[in-house]
Amino acid sequence: MSVVKPGLNKYEVVLANKYYLRELVESISLDESLSDIAYHAQVRLLVTDEFQKIGIANGQEIRISGIPFGGSSMVYLLHPGVVWECSSETTGIKHIDIDIYDRSIYLAKSEDEYLFPAGQTATDRLKQYCKDWGITSSIIADTKIALAKGVYRAQSIYSMIQRDIQETAVKGGGLFRARMSPDGLELIELGKNKNVWVLEPDQNVSQITQKRTLEGTVTQVKVLGNAGEDSRSPVLAIEKGETAKYGTLQVVLQDEKITTASAASISAKKLLCGMQETFEVEAIDINTIRAGDKVMLSSTELYVISVNHQLGNPGKMTLELASEDYVRRRFYLEGTG
Q1: Which of 7, 36, 71, 127 has its CB 3.0 to 4.6 Å from that of 312, i.e. a possible disulfide?
Q2: Domain boundary at 272, 299, 318, which?
Q3: Alpha carbon of 239 to those of 169, 170, 216, 261: distances in Å?
Q4: 206 and 282 in contact (C-beta within 8 Å)?
Q5: Could you list the residue range(s) of the whole structural domain that residue 160 is in?
Q6: Do residues 326 and 224 lie in contact, with contact meaning Cβ atoms separated by under 8 Å?
Q7: Do 144 and 93 sit in the same domain of this protein?
Q8: In this structure, are residues 317 and 267 in contact, taking their beta carbons and an 8 Å threshold?
Q9: Which residues, 6 or more positions from 296, have their beta carbon under 8 angstroms from its beta carbon?
């Protein structure tokens, strides 16, 4: 007897590259955020006698495939994946819940130490990480911005990657994100996705929750240079934003890598931001939307901060969306320096 819920038959879970678990799948969710590198899935399976003979072990290879929204043939949605955590429960019928991550999770969980010379780009450094760690790379975007000398003591590889792409943003470059694909580790620029999906309240969207706040608003930025022990830091630049509208909400930026007034002005302007606005959207699932993608909410361009796909037919998804300026401030400029 099939236990597949209606709609899940257009998805496939394959364990160890040979066990097709479609008939055992009760639910699948996929979630991703700009705060993390790895794509995450949760799969709930019915445990039959046959499956118990096969078994499942932490560290095993696993993948999730599905038919894209509007498509006709299966593609990889999460691959290569690894079984990270398992938990089971028995209430007459046994079920097992599996937490799966794509293999970029190892970059978040593994530490190393690096010393990089000045003049390299984030692209150069990502290629070095891949070479040293034996990671296959795929599309690696050219970040173009020359970085300062990098002294990275023991920390995760992912944190080093983040520091490289954050420095790129601070210096006026684009917003980039590392992520795993079936072809290897990618470095992509946010908002450059080929298909920009349109979300319409009267068509494919069931609910929109809008949040507006002055928390996190910055209307004035003071950039300080380096100073001796007994002297005040020189002011390299002061940039004003919407002080007349929201009052003076100042942050101080002090970064040893910023040494000129022009560089200070560029960095300061990037930190200015007005009212903070985000949207939570519940909609029919478009199962290929990823964190960092650009979408259109009616006629407004927004970026996906996080996404949760509840796979099904049609399934549903929950998106957290915000403007490019908000994403730059929250994920690429806060905490830098």
Answers
A1: 7
A2: 272
A3: 18, 15, 17, 11
A4: yes
A5: 104-189
A6: no
A7: no
A8: no
A9: 196, 197, 198, 199, 302
